[in-house]
């Protein structure tokens, strides 16, 4: 039986992979969940090579049955669950509102919002059984502080809704000693471009002049997945044991400019 157990969704690449590796380094047995088995395997392999414990869990976060089965498998293997990182997400289609097709809107909502809801819903009974725990939701600067990314209507809606869920549930889950917080990254160098389709940004971009540069702290350089993972690890740990219902922007100040 592991002493502490975490599950990370979308753990096959980018922020999720970095979070899985960091949590394993911090002593968690980690459920590496994603819908692409090869990607899960690569992350799990890296954890094991570092001396950590990983369980590969294939599930699509839009499927309640697949998620429930994955949480049950992890729980059966390690006997408990302490931390959940609801990270899986896509940029989807970013387009002017009158060019954004309803099924494109639905796809982003389904993966990012329904996926987050189903992940938390499946996690809570296990966290209650463990006597409490920590849920970390990966939102974004888009939809929380930034509303000027051309065509990002569907994406921003999901990221705003994730923060609403975090604040709503912080109160509801407090009695079970379950904390829930959001991380709102700015531009982070990951593989998310593979799940991004930006159409006609010139039509939906805001005609305004921003201050020079886009990330004050780094002269415009994007952040890294490891920088986000370090904050995830903080929210997963007892170091943050009086923090719940809070967003943390990890963006080098990017969202304060636009
Ligand atoms: P990423 O490298 O593309 O990682 C996303 C992961 O989620 C991938 O492993 C992907 O698997 C998985 N995934 C996608 N749809 C899934 C589904 N239906 N079921 C299960 N897994 C699924 O992107 P990332 O940048 O690390 O993004 C992680 C989170 O950070 C997202 O919620 C994103 O909105 C947020 N975020 C990112 C940035 C940024 O600049 N990168 C900024 C703010 C917020 P496949 O690759 O196999 O599809």
From TrEMBL:
Could you tell me which CDD domains the record lists for this protein? SDR_c (cd05233)
Which InterPro entries does the record match to this protein?
A: NAD(P)-bd_dom_sf, SDR_fam
Show the Pfam families listed in the entry.
Answer: adh_short_C2 (PF13561)
Keywords associated with the record: Oxidoreductase
Q: Which GO terms describe its molecular function?
A: oxidoreductase activity
The similarity comment for this entry is: Belongs to the short-chain dehydrogenases/reductases (SDR) family.
Concerning PANTHER family, the annotation shows:
5-KETO-D-GLUCONATE 5-REDUCTASE, ALCOHOL DEHYDROGENASE, PUTATIVE (AFU_ORTHOLOGUE AFUA_3G03445)-RELATED
Q: What is this protein called?
A: 3-ketoacyl-ACP reductase
Organism listed in the record: Martelella endophytica
